[in-house]
Design goal:
The complex is a heterodimer.
Chain A lengths: L1 H18 L4 H6 L5 H10 L6 H13 L13 H35 L5 H15 L2 H15 L11 H31 L2 H8 L4 H38 L5 H10 L3 H29 L7
Helix pairs in contact in A: 1-12, 5-6, 5-8, 5-10, 5-12, 6-8, 7-8, 7-10, 8-10, 9-10, 10-11, 10-12, 11-12
Chain B lengths: L14 H11 L1 H18 L1 H4 L31 H37 L1 H14 L4 H12 L3 H28 L2 H8 L4 H38 L10 H8 L8 H28 L5
The chains are: A mainly alpha, B mainly alpha.
């Protein structure tokens, strides 16, 4: 499953500059490049060859870590990405951790007292959270904590303090969905017979919830977390742009404006590899949480 | 779905009226309908509802805070913010409806034969879909905009294409499941053609989950399109697109935060109303929920 997907992703990225009207060699070299540069790129990427050969050359170059040269900075794209990738991963992982802890807690909390005032409040808040555009949350947090209170820097990077607002924004984007899924799958599990058995044999409610219910309720939540990580990668592109946070998302958006196709191509490829890798991790997590699942 | 109401008996309610009653009892869902209705009215009657011309600049009166003449204040070019938001409703709803509609039709065209025929057709069609699934939805949309170039219509196309895999998978699953059910087998046994089975028996029964999904997806589509607009990859100025409006206000966050605040609220309220309706529909259509 993973290998065909990676193959497919590379194929789409390969086709990216070939479906844009115009000469791919010129797109890769830039509009006003010297003819000599264009020709050397044409040779390097085999652009005069048939498409199948072009694809093989493309894959070979990628495997050698050659993603081309950025038009705007003249650095190799792989170098640009290696500078930005850790920032994006740090931001996304931190936000994911906050969101998972917060989402699970809120979801378990409200599922154990369904239709109470507290449950109605958190459920409504989650729905509002799911509906809030991520850039707006970002600006609201920026306005509150940077402009009004002056506690945190509004933009930039370099210190832990710079990481607070972007990661909170991204966490606020993911928490409601995790909370919603946790709540509904907990409610489902708490209706089951074996929960009634656990209660009737006199287990304390805490043990019933945490030892018996949560573990089974987690399985659908993990599916959602995998799905949400994909959305967070998208959300991180917007978040990085708002906070001028030097991650891959900002790199990609800037590259689109400058028509820097080598960078666009490279970042999209790395994003999709990251996404596929995350899904593999999520599958592994299933096996850990649900011992019934065995991988051959 | 096609069961008729027993004539004269009030005991047996049709499926449809049960769903309707359950939906009516769901307060958030009804509230969502009211909110969405108001947004729709704004979108359709924008020219009459809006107090000012959304494109008319008044540089002498820019960045004005909310007041009695300009209820939500003016933007950086002195344009009335409320009028721009009202006109923006038209753009956002169009974006949401057209992109989701396109994705729905193409998704069913891919998913239905894959689920109904299985085998090679399934492998080929879902192979394409799985490749698209290698990209997070929003990244796929960004990539398409990068290819087509930023504009309002390209943004619509991008968000629409990015949603296709979802519908293809959902309709494939529905067709795969319904194909094996007794009533479909019975139809096949009495010699119904594939066309009849698909359009008369399977499609009507897969509509419910598709409708629920679509309502929620319109919210997602509006949010994605607004994000593209915010990044500058959507509508070109001076089109009053909500995401782009929030983005313009970014520069005036210190002096005039209302420029970003209100268009953002408009996006949120629209998405919220669609999510409330979608949740309500899902619960109403779920036979396990009473």
């Amino acid at each position: 499953m993973t290998i065909p997907t990676v193959f497919g992703a590379s194929l789409i990225v390969f086709l990216l500059i070939r479906v844009i009207p115009g000469d791919p060699a010129v797109l890769l070299a830039g509009e006003d490049a010297e003819p000599l540069v264009v020709e050397s790129l044409r040779k390097e990427w085999g652009l005069a060859e048939p498409l199948t050969t072009q694809y093989l050359v493309f894959v070979r170059n990628i495997l050698q870590g050659n993603l081309g040269v950025s038009l705007s900075s003249n650095y190799p794209v792989s170098h640009e990405i290696s500078l930005r990738l850790p920032s994006t991963m740090l931001l996304t992982l931190l936000a994911m951790m906050i969101a998972t802890v917060a989402g699970l807690s809120i979801g378990i909390f409200s599922s154990t007292r369904p239709y109470s005032l507290a449950d109605n409040f958190t459920t409504t808040l989650s729905l509002v959270g799911v509906s809030a555009p991520v850039f707006w949350t970002a600006l609201a947090l920026m306005y509150l904590f940077a402009v009004k209170l002056g506690w945190l820097p509004a933009i930039g990077s370099g210190s832990l303090r710079h990481l607070v607002l972007p990661s909170l924004t991204l966490a606020a984007f993911a928490t409601p969905e995790i909370a919603r899924q946790t709540r509904s799958s907990m409610l489902e599990v708490l209706r089951q017979e074996y929960i009634r058995t656990a209660r009737s044999k006199g287990l304390r409610e805490i043990a019933v919830v945490y030892r018996h219910a949560v573990r089974n309720a987690l399985i659908p939540v993990i599916t959602v977390i995998g799905f949400i990580l994909g959305r967070m990668l998208g959300g991180s592109i917007v978040t990085e742009t708002v906070f001028s946070y030097p991650g891959m998302g900002k790199l990609l958006v800037d590259a689109i404006f400058m028509r820097d196709y080598p960078v666009i191509q490279g970042t999209i490829l790395v994003y999709s590899l990251l996404f596929v890798f995350v899904n593999v991790l999520v599958d592994a997590m299933y096996a850990y949480v649900d011992p019934r699942i065995q991988y051959k | 779905m096609t069961r008729r109401r027993g004539s004269g008996s009030s005991e047996r309610k049709s499926q449809r009226s049960i769903v309707y009653l359950k939906f009516r009892r769901n307060r958030p869902a009804v509230a969502g309908c009211v909110m969405l209705g108001a947004t729709l009215v704004c979108a359709i009657l924008a020219d009459y509802v809006a107090p000012y011309d959304p494109l008319k600049a008044d540089l002498g009166n820019n960045l004005a805070p909310p007041s009695s003449t300009h209820i939500l204040g003016t933007d950086e070019m002195g344009r009335d913010l409320l009028s721009r938001i009202i006109h923006g409703a038209r753009i956002s709803l169009q974006l949401g409806l057209i992109s989701v509609g396109t994705a729905l039709v193409i998704g069913i065209l891919i998913g239905a034969p894959a689920g109904y025929y299985g085998g090679l057709a399934d492998h080929m069609l879902m192979g394409i879909v799985n490749i698209m699934m290698a990209f997070p939805t929003f990244l796929l949309a960004i990539m398409i905009v990068a290819i087509l170039g930023p504009s309002l219509s390209n943004c619509m196309v991008a968000v629409g294409i990015a949603l296709i895999p979802l519908y293809a998978r959902l309709s494939r699953a529905m067709f795969l499941y319904l194909r094996e059910l007794d009533f479909v087998q019975a139809a096949r046994m009495i010699g119904a053609s594939d066309v009849r089975i698909v359009f008369r028996h399977i499609l009507p029964n897969s509509l419910a989950p598709l409708i629920v999904q679509s309502t929620l997806n319109i919210a997602t589509a509006i949010l994605s399109a607004a994000s593209l607009g915010f990044l500058g990859l959507g509508a070109e100025p001076p089109i009053p697109e909500w995401g782009a409006m929030v983005s313009r206000g970014r520069l005036y966050l210190v002096t005039a935060p209302h420029i970003s605040l209100y268009p953002g609220l408009a996006i949120m309220i629209t998405a919220l109303s669609l999510n409330m309706i979608g949740d309500g529909l899902r619960d109403a259509l779920d036979p396990r929920m009473t």
